[in-house]
Every structure is written in structure tokens, then in C-alpha cells.
Amino acid sequence: MKTSATIAALAAAAATTASAGGIDRAANNNDIIFRSGNYAEIGISRTIPDVTGTDRPSALPRRYEYDGVADSFTLVNFGIKYDLNDRLSLAFTGQQDYGSDINYDGNPGTSFLGGTSAVADTYALSLLARYKLTENFSVHGGLRADRADGKIRLDGLAYGGPTVFGPTGAPLSAAQVSALSGGARNSNAVSGYQVELDEDWGYGYQLGAAYEVPEIALRLAVTYTSKITHDFGTTESFSASGGRSATFTGGTTSVDTPQSVNVNLQSGVAKNTLVFANYRWADWSEFKINPDQFRRATGAQLVSIDDAHTYEIGVAHRFTPAFAARASVVRDIVDGDNLVSPLSPTKGYTAFAVGGSYTVGSVEYSAGVRYFLLGDAQPETGTPDVARADFTDNDAIAFGFKIGYSF
């Protein structure tokens, strides 16, 4: 029976991305720390979403149809693992852990969400160590550094038109707008609002433990990843009443990336064959983007997301000494109802993944593909929440390629 290297060799290739429609992209993958011997790898993947939606029925002349709301994106990851001795190993990795590429087409004056967009980029560097306490038990953990920035724009009729400003030059608060309108409105309008979050580095850690039985390729690993706090320098701009605009600089917006727990189980069941099951929980309910001037104008949060639970089951088989393959099914379940932020207009997914690897000497070539059926959702705005569009029957496909070298 082959060792656990069979599945480790295929993990990054078949699981090219954690989520095609949401923000979580790399799932804090640290499989490299369990590789046998000294090893280095570099991988690239491309995800191509097909995300479309239609304005909800309303008094508008027609229901606008949004096309290509989620843009394609490319991920590049690398890793190197080195054994200091027969008990202690180190690994250094880099991967894009979170991101967003959302853009609604359409005229902001004739559609609910036309002109709304969100672009966010992050990249995480991790330095990990693994120490074998016995042949069966080990602990692992290390430090993470995460670089992030972003830009968000809100536009369309769902955001109510230009912002109303007071005599001090600041947007009227939600309470002031309510008072002026006699309670007809409970927040200011923010069509044309834009916020830029400057590049920032944040720091966190990982801790975990594993139980292994090498004779049957059994491994159970549990890993906790801490949240990372970013304090972004912030520039907010509003489209004001009377055709004016107003920009506010010098602010700071604190954002926590989610803490998470990964549970990975695998076991040999026959010669050259393993089955595996993975679970991931991400605490997205603590992820908030809440710039000062936006909060004052609306009394609401700019971005909030529900917790996610991701399950994967699959099988891997080595057909020849050089060639191995795997297949899996993934289910991503997001808490709450189908009302979502327009900046993440799908809700969970079901995915089917296949991948393979071919070894020539010390070099291993891996490739994989994953097809996503993205969950239906209704982007909402306002307080209380009002559904503005229907997003149904969306999908995505992701391709990945990796080269690994044992030394």
C-alpha cells in the first residue's frame, strides 16, 4: 500500500480554488508540510465564472439582465519544505487566500445595481514547522503574513441616488435623514459611493496536530488558522446632491479576515488506493467592512458575510509507479437565507473535481479541473434588507497545473 504522498501530490492540482463565486480562495492549504523528504513546488490556476442575474420585478420600465458579474481570475502559489532532521521539518508557502472580482454592467440610472463593483487582492506568506512527537503523533504551526488592498463602488437605483450632505460638509446621518423625511427613509442615499482601502500587511498564526498510521496511509490532521486584522488607510468619496462630489481622506478601516478550522482525514482502503474527507469552517460572520463616513450616512455595514462550511469526499488511486489520479465532490454551505451582499452574489456551491499527476525522476507534473454549480442568491440593499436581483443557475470552471521537485 502506498504512503500518504499519493493524495498530497494531487491535492493542489485538483483543488485549484476554494470558491469560484465568493471570497475564500485558497482554504489555507498546508498539505506540503506532510510531504515526504525535501520538496518544492509552484502552481498556477485559472477560474472562469459564469455569473448572471436579473433585476427583481419593480416599477422600472424593464428588468435589467446582468452578464459576466464575476470576472475570471488567476492564482499563483508556491511552497518549499525541508527536513532539518528526522523529527523537525520547515515549510515556506505563498498563496492568494482571499479575493474578489465583481463588476455589474448596466446604466446606474436604469438598473438596480449597474456600476457596482468590488476588487480585492490578498496574498499570504506562511512559515510553518512540523515536529514529530512519535511515529504516530505530530504537531505543526507557524506564522502568517497577509498583504491586502481593495476598492469598492456602489451604484444603481438600489442605492437611492446622490448622497445628501449637511452644512458641515459631512453626509447626513441615518437618524438625520429619517427625521427630515418624516420616517419615510431610514438611511442616506449612496449611489456613486466609492471606497479605496490602501495596501496593508497583517499577521496571524496557525496551530495544529496530526495522527498518522503510515502502514495504512492513515492521517487525521486538524489545523486552526487565526484571524488577521488589517488597518487600511481609507479614502471615501460620495456623489453628492446638486451634481457635487465629496472626498474624505485620512480615515482608517479595520477589517478582520476570518479565523478557520480545517479537518483533513485520509486512509488507504486497498492497494494503491486512498479515500479522503475534508471539512473547513470559516468564521465569515466576523468579517466586516465598515468605513466611517459610510456608516454615518447609512447606519449599516458596507460588507457582511455569513459563516461557511465546506465538505469534500473523494478517492485517489495510483495506477502505475508514475501515474496517479483522484476525484472528489465538494459541498460548500453558507449559513443564513438567500439574501446576500451584491459584492458576493452567489451562495455556496457544489463542485466536482478530478486531477492527476505524472512523475518523471524527481519531477512531478500535476493537473486538475473543478466544475462548480454556484448556489442561487438574491443580492440585497437597504435596512431592512430588500432583495434587488435574482441570481440563479450560475456555474464556474477552474483549471490548475503544478510542478513539484523532490530533492
General description of the model:
This is Transporter. InterPro entries: OMPP1/FadL/TodX (IPR005017). 6% of the residues lie in helices and 55% in strands. A hairpin with a 4-residue loop joins strand 7 (117-132) and strand 8 (137-154). With 407 residues, it is mainly beta. The protein has a single domain, classed as Porin (Beta Barrel), CATH 2.40.160.60. The protein is elongated. Residues 1-21 have low confidence and may be disordered.
CATH topology heading: Porin
Structural classification: mainly beta
| CATH H-level superfamily | Outer membrane protein transport protein (OMPP1/FadL/TodX)
**Individual helix count:** 3
Family: Belongs to the OmpP1/FadL family.
Membrane topology: Multi-pass membrane protein
InterPro entries: OMPP1/FadL/TodX (IPR005017)
Signal peptide: 1-20
Detail the topology: elements first, then pairings.
Layout: H1 5-14, E1 39-50, E2 53-55, E3 65-66, E4 73-83, E5 88-95, E6 99-103, E7 117-132, E8 137-154, H2 174-180, E9 193-213, E10 218-225, E11 228-239, E12 245-257, E13 260-270, E14 273-282, E15 288-289, H3 292-298, E16 303-304, E17 308-318, E18 323-334, E19 339-340, E20 349-360, E21 363-374, E22 378-381, E23 386-387, E24 389-390, E25 394-406
Protein name: Transporter
Keywords: Cell outer membrane, Membrane, Signal, Transmembrane, Transmembrane beta strand
Pfam family, one: Toluene_X
